[in-house]
What we know:
It is a single chain. By secondary structure, the chain is α/β, with parallel strands linked by helices. Helix content is about 45%, strand content about 10%. The strands form three sheets. Strands 6-5-3-7-8 form a five-stranded mixed β-sheet, with helices on both faces. Helix 5 (about 190-205) packs antiparallel against helix 16 (about 490-500) and helix 7 (about 225-250) packs across helix 15 (about 465-485). The longest helix has about 40 residues, at about 10-50.
Amino acid sequence: xxxxxxxxxxxxxxxxxxxxxxxxxxxxxxxxxxxxxxxxxxxxxxxxxxxxxxxxxxxxxxxxxxxxxxxxxxxxxxxxxxxxxxxxxxxxxxxxxxxxxxxxxxxxxxxxxxxxxxxxxxxxxxxxxxxxxxxxxxxxxxxxxxxxxxxxxxxxxxxxxxxxxxxxxxxxxxxxxxxxxxxxxxxxxxxxxxxxxxxxxxxxxxxxxxxxxxxxxxxxxxxxxxxxxxxxxxxxxxxxxxxxxxxxxxxxxxxxxxxxxxxxxxxxxxxxxxxxxxxxxxxxxxxxxxxxxxxxxxxxxxxxxxxxxxxxxxxxxxxxxxxxxxxxxxxxxxxxxxxxxxxxxxxxxxxxxxxxxxxxxxxxxxxxxxxxxxxxxxxxxxxxxxxxxxxxxxxxxxxxxxxxxxxxxxxxxxxxxxxxxxxxxxxxxxxxxxxxxxxxxxxxxxxxxxxxxxxxxxxxxxxxxxxxxxxxxxxxxxxxxxxxxxxxxxxxxxxxxxxxxxxxxxxxxxxxxxxxxxxxxxxxxxxxxxxx
Length: 532
């Protein structure tokens, strides 16, 4: 049979069908290419997160006037360049980091001298039979020693006194009995120092109660983690909660508040599985506030009604990220975060991006320039800062948002995310221009919530809602103390020592005197440091 002849003529219907198939295949190819580009972006950002530079202050993005370090020699080579001589060669002066001496490291530690003297039996001279006398001493070395933590039981005995004269004259003795200081917890061995130590180890040092239980056991004290948890929760709810509420009220009276949130897992929560996520919110006063405050609040979800309820009595500037839930907060001026905007551009940049080859690099450069300009006003008067922002920063932002409207990214790309974030947040991102007290980023809140995130890596979850609420209160107390340059343990020890004498309803005046920023508390900290 003869070979089939190759078909070289097609009907109009067949041509149309082939063209349709080609268009469908091309559309499918384009879709797959976009998916591949999107997956490459995700992979690149994952590699950056794991292996790349963590700081967002600088990145290796080349502008049009920069050269690549790998081919620098070829680009800048000049055969006519003169060789430097001793007269023309100078080294720019720079301050080397001074290595700390042992004396500087130990200047705040008590010193005990060990005098290596000869025993009396060896003070006789073997040559003449005379007696040696001490003529001097020389420092041989220094050692840092550790004195293990000590535990002891304090037993309080009240004494009863009787007046002999009253009994002789009337037949009835006048009786006086001394009163013991108020107990931190009734029918418990817990003391202010013990509870403060347990709290600080867990919430500041990230040491879970299970590990603390083992440490106590090694020291010969059998304290179960259930007992430790009971101490923390009961003391928090009884003594620290009034402080927490007072701090919250002071925060709501401030001009600027930063807000952020992160996840937390609570095992025993009604209506939710143990594996579900709840939220820990943080609210912080502005960087220029006279009352540095950090307030944590536990909530079962991320609903916008949570910050709306917390901030219902606040009417100032609210600095947040781009989460839409914050829009439910009424009667505030919403301010955006340029650190998040810059982060979006960074995520959209391919490897080797330059301002000539990448729109994302251009956007990133705009954000970096904004941080540089605004950083120059960190230590100037509010009036000067406001004038600088209006005359220098505002034109840069106007240029930036005009440029944004010329960028047309592919749908679903990281570049589209970066463009959309800035355009959708334009009003919030420019709100800082109206007040010199408002910063250009929400980094303060992110730094405030970081101790909780770090601690969560150690204790992993909260057992109950009450435990999560107690954690929020404790973090608020210790982080506010740290924000006011106080040693958390000493502050907590002072609070737990004084509040039991005020019963369960301390007055406003008492709570105000216990605030970390109060002059009496600050003076107490100064005296403590001097004693050391």
